[in-house]
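quick one, 114 residues, struct below
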Amino acid sequence: MPPSVEDQLQDILASIVEIQDGLRGAGLDQFLKDRRTRLATERLLEIVCEAARKLRDHVKLEEPGIDWREMVNFANRLRHAYHATDVEIVWDIIENHLPPLKAFVERRIGAADK
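---
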């Protein structure tokens, strides 16, 4: 059975939390130097992006401020152009795209719990 919307949201949230916990206190320079952390982060970002890609359109329409298409494009680059992954783009996604996605998912999960 395919994952439900709730499962997808939980996967997104869990992966974002794990990324943020793993990078707590780190900056771009440290991230650039730590290959193992980069690889783990990229894998977690694949999960985030793939789960976001599979969310139903009505869910995505609830948060038009998120660039859902960019999430899909980024996931494709991670999977198919792994050899050309730009670490600064990964860092930008972490710093600028994950916080609003996390906030949306937390709101959505919170609303479902009520």
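The chain has one domain: 5-113.
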